């Protein structure tokens, strides 16, 4: 919409998702053709359709899943669908248009997460086809509405960088007009764990090195960060309630957030804007 933007994602899979979300400059005819080509010759009612063609890759990925998800329900949920997932992945990798390939990959990752979270009896291929068609129609409607309103969605560039918002040394001080951010929940979601099956299957192995959201926060444990009194009071309250583990997670999280605020302040221009999306609900678990 004529605005240049920079996005920062700590996970490679998050970077791909953001790039797909921020790119609305699709050739709809070309996208529709690629959707048709992707499923050309596939009988969505058949199960295990491609197993003989993907045995070697499935074996490698299955071993990675066993190593990283041993004992987790996600492992049992996703294994019955692995052959068809890998087959779709290989087809998507052959798509020449990078933007469309990322669009398909993101939707595939989301469908993998859905199937890993809950046992599904549906055929993965037919479920993915339905989801892809739905997303295509949503995108089609968005682009047509923008056209009616004379909004040029191709103006402005969005550059997604894989990085950490507590160390934005790739950005100059006083260089950003505005910041919009939705900070991570400190323990309500495990952004790595919840996506682990998708991360493994799609080959984003570097993301596994972070381990988990808690492990990422833990790296701030030894950082010397002076927290405000309200934060210290909260941490002490948790300690008095014998919630030592929770208090440490909260302290690490608040240190991370303060370092992030400090970096955002550094790169933000004088008179710039900072907007944060937060939830008004939280449940202590």
Automatic annotation (TrEMBL):
BP GO terms, sorted: DNA restriction-modification system; methylation
Presence of the UniProt keyword GTP-binding in the record: no
InterPro entries: MeTrfase_CN4_CS, SAM-dependent_MTases_sf
UniProt keyword S-adenosyl-L-methionine, yes or no: yes
Keyword line: Methyltransferase, Restriction system, S-adenosyl-L-methionine, Transferase
MF terms in GO: DNA binding; site-specific DNA-methyltransferase (cytosine-N4-specific) activity
Enzyme Commission number(s): 2.1.1.113
Catalytic activity: a 2'-deoxycytidine in DNA + S-adenosyl-L-methionine = an N(4)-methyl-2'-deoxycytidine in DNA + S-adenosyl-L-homocysteine + H(+)
Matching Gene3D superfamilies: Vaccinia Virus protein VP39 (3.40.50.150)
Family that this chain belongs to: Belongs to the N(4)/N(6)-methyltransferase family. N(4) subfamily.
Protein name as catalogued: site-specific DNA-methyltransferase (cytosine-N(4)-specific)
Taxonomic lineage of the native organism: Bacteria, Pseudomonadati, Candidatus Kryptoniota, Candidatus Chryseopegocella
